[in-house]
Specification:
By secondary structure, the protein is an alpha/beta fold. The protein contains eleven helices and 13 strands. The protein has helices at residues 35-45, 60-66, 70-78, 83-95, 112-118, 120-123, 143-154, 213-221, 233-242, 262-275, 279-290, and strands at residues 4-8, 29-30, 33-34, 50-55, 100-105, 128-131, 135-138, 158-163, 173-181, 184-192, 203-211, 248-251, 255-258. A hairpin with a 2-residue loop joins strand 2 (29-30) and strand 3.
Length: 291
Amino acid sequence: MIKKAVLPIAGLGTRFLPLSKELPKEFWPLADLPVIQYIVEEARDSGIEEIIFVISPEKKMIVDYFNGSAKAEKILKQRNKSSVLLDMLAEFKDSFKNISFSYVVQKNPLGDGHAILQAAEKIGDDPFGVLFGDDVVDYKIPCLSQLINVYKTCQKPVIAIRRVSEEMISSYGILEVEKIANRFYKIKGIVEKPELKFAPSDFAITGKYIATPTVLDYLRKEPKPKKGKEIILANIFEKMIEDGYSVYGYEFEGEWLECGNKLNWLKSHIYYSLKHPKLGPQLKKHLKEIL
């Protein structure tokens, strides 16, 4: 049973500069909650019991966010603030009571694969989930839970995949696939950000995976990247496929909300804000007035 998930969030957030140098992009809001909370809630709702953050030295505040805030509670009590605020903090803390949080530091930004490798000791010898900080899914069944169910059948690495429009193909890792069953594909190859004429399909990699100990073995074999290069998880899967290992893709159900650049984040923010029971009606009214 998969009980651990790695969240590699050590990236510099260069697309969000200058704000991201002060506020990590994982803390940017979608409606009234930060991006990272939606991802952690997905892990929790998928039965994950241990979350391992891979952070840069500047991002420890993200770990602190989920470990409670005795200081905030003390200040609220000293100021005789409403018990409603204290209840909100208590409810937040209680919602993650069945998850343990830990972290490792990626001192140098050498790629998402390198970030995952830093967590290898904490991961151990079991399969594990990987959730990137740019991809949120609005779900009935959590995306990671869908991948776990697929893994129970195939016992091999599983990648969450989605079809993308022709104009977006050159922005993603695109897959050559063989259909096995409804929504279930064997991955035959991975082409990173191809021109449309060279794309083997319209299936793109999204930032959610089930990885196995073999993935860690391949990461360990990677030489230290040369200046300007990185160790990328998608490239590891490609090497495994070339060596005859099976890797599968699952076309997950749910609304895929990207947060990796300013426009996609803004679209996702509006999506969740319109769905919000209190904010949504007022926002809809405001948008009608200004559009």
